[in-house]
Amino acid sequence: MKGGLPESEYISHVLDDLMEDLPLITNNGQLREVSSIFIGGGTPSLLSVAGMQRLLDGIAARIPLAASAEITMEANPGTVEADKFIGFEKAGINRISIGVQSFDEQHLKALGRIHDPVQARAAVELAKRLGLRSFNLDLMHGLPNQNVADAMLDLREAIALAPPHLSWYQLTIEPNTAFYSKPPTLPDDDILWEIQERGHQLLTEAGYEQYEISAYAKQGQQCQHNLNYWRYGDYLGIGCGAHGKITMPPSTPALPAHTIMRTVKVKHPKGYMDFTRAYMDKVSQVESDDLAFEFFMNRFRIMEACPKAQFAKNTGRELTNIELKHLEKAQTMKLISSNYQEWQLTATGKRYLNSLLDLFV
Fold it and tell me: Does the keyword Metal-binding apply (predicted)?
């Protein structure tokens, strides 16, 4: 693989890592069924076809996969090659997420992307020809020095390519990145809001439904992995630096029923592939006091109403009086609406999501 990472050895470690985590999804000798696989982080499209086939075959041999399982692979347009992607589809990949980010060459250079607009368009056209179940196009807005007209031009080009799913999200400056040490000039809040409002209108008129804060899809094309994540579902994190969230089986010794654990695997490839140490780097229990924040931080990112019974089902406990007062305050601030059965994020709540979540901190 590019960068010198030995592909075959790494895949062996990933499969061994999966085997070590199987007790986390085993209850009374029965493994839980897996409904989606998301192969991301770095550039998984650099894998060879044979490597991808071995990885997916190895996963299927170790865990029960639902017949309708969604299997997504992230791809950088600069690594999209027709023969390889046909091979990936034959190996079992049925959904591709293409990290286009922008169709403007200057913005791509500012983001440090290795592809150009021509490669981005070609990658999307190839995905359309493959006969996949679905594919996603990743697009950013709020880029350095980007104005409303530039952002709409990018979005119109993405819509014209007719992806079944479009992730359209604002650039954020993350720690340990080049932008973090030397922050660029980003659009101000008024420009960002106008971009979001006009973009939402464009996407809606084109037949896309916003089902998550930063994701739009044609009817029936929502990403199942995303939905499980934002509904506060469980997921195994397998591979270098992977994060997982698991509700421990009731039969787990010395743990209360419905204990939720967060897992983190060794981040550096050299350490991850060191036979003298474990793949697991950190395991932490989500404390009871943090459950409301974690649940609503995820659940209020999606547009669908949240059944009130879902909180107890997913966390194993009832809301406290303090948390109920936070929800009442959110209603007073018109961030959410509520009836006997469910909570619903409002348009105001969508705009001021951070203010809503701050109520639970």
Answer: yes
